[in-house]
Amino acid sequence: MRDRSHGGVNEEEAVEAAERELRRTQSPQFRQNRHPFLIGVAGGTASGKTTVCDRIMQRLHDQCVVMLSQDSFYRTLTPTEMALAKENNYNFDHPDALDRKGMMECLQKLKEGRSVEVPVYDFALHARVEETRRMDPADVVIVEGILVLAMEEVRDQLNMKIYVDTDDDVRLARRIQRDVASRGRDVASVIEQYTKFVKPAFDTFIGPSRRHADIIVPWQSSENVVAIDLITEHIRLKLRQHDLIRIYSNLEVMPSNFQMRGMHTILRDRDTSPNDFVFYADRINRLLVEAGLGHLPFREKTVMTPTGHKYTGVEFARGLCGVSVIRSGEAMEAALRECCQGIKIGKILVHRHGKSEDIVYEKLPADISRRYVLLLDPVLGTGNTACKAIQVLLDKGVQESKILFLCIIAAPPGIHRVCQTYPQVKVITSEIDTGVDENWCVVPGVGEFGDRYYC
Ligand SMILES: O=P(O)(O)OC[C@H]1O[C@H](OP(=O)(O)OP(=O)(O)O)[C@H](O)[C@@H]1O
Ligand SMILES: O=c1cc[nH]c(=O)[nH]1
């Protein structure tokens, strides 16, 4: 008889658990260990970037948000460069005018949740001053500047890329006003600099960087309130999520409710009987497969209901197959067959020797290159096995974007490895674990999945 005594969670316990979670997530240690959400805001000179950043910060007033400006990283000019600057002949709009290394170091530290000392630049002297400005770890870091999306190394660090789009004539008028009023310049020199350097740099670096943006915000004379609403809602959603989901758009963690937590508690309990282990692993596998199928394309289809009315719905995608990683992945085949009758399922065997692995066997559908592939393996640990298996599929001609990797538990090293190496592969898991120990076991983990499932 199956042991069902793990069943319900009473309301009082649920409230207590929720309160414990709230206390935990608000503690200083928790906040310090979190990676912030990094947003880049670019656009031409005087396009309204700072106003966009201010509006985002105002809306996120209950979060810790800091703003890093590209302008802080202008290099102190050499005497020769200084002479050119004095003759209005130095290109401040070129990426080489920046201390890109210093900027990346700063960004990296903030990303790791560490404090930084940000340089302070004096625009009138064209030099860094002695003092620095301390910036503490934050939930959200906004990096603002004309070249933020033009520098690949900066772009690669960002979780959200915004481009502020404003007409050239509006920007020039604003730039003249600003430089005359606050940077001690006259109108003629501002226009000369604009024609000689600002506009060509816009045409070469800044304008083209718009194609890297996730969001292009039209920003003319009146403020774009709708865009700011959408951006801040998206950030709030991301902040509610686990760090790794914020970072990788190709990672999906199934919603965690008490059913899911309860099933995981049983899988993770070393005293769980083999029967129960199989029963609950199968239940999660079924949910995982359904979550994976939810990512496949569909076509609209209209049918007639028994009441004689039309129902407009969708038709499932064709050209799908499964591939299980032997042995544990085979435990997920039944769930896939229950959802997709008659589906073809291939197999890959990766032999692990500690850190290195070899593919020792593969049997895949002959036409796999034309199919979507649900790659099945319940445990993602270091990610070595998954990467090997994915590479086999790519070598067979499967498109990266057509691979969905399904696993019951995923450890952060494996998530980083797979999501970074194969950014178009969708990784779907039911829980993220803490890590991998010195024996390459996932912790807290479920132990050796295959031994427990097949014993
Ligand atoms: O991400 P990694 O560190 O590579 O670890 C994950 C691999 O480990 C497990 O298989 P295992 O080698 O235990 O073989 P089994 O399925 O035959 O039990 C699991 O099913 C994965 O294939
Ligand atoms: O913890 C682990 C790691 C690899 N494989 C498993 O089955 N469990």
TrEMBL record:
Entry keyword set: Allosteric enzyme, ATP-binding, Glycosyltransferase, GTP-binding, Kinase, Nucleotide-binding, Transferase
GO cellular component, as recorded: cytoplasm
Domain Phosphoribosyltransferase: 255-454
Family matches, as Pfam families: PRK, UPRTase
A GO term, aspect molecular function: GTP binding
EC number: 2.7.1.48
Similarity comment text for this entry: In the N-terminal section; belongs to the uridine kinase family.
Protein's recorded name: Uridine kinase
Organism of this sequence: Chlamydomonas reinhardtii (Chlamydomonas smithii)
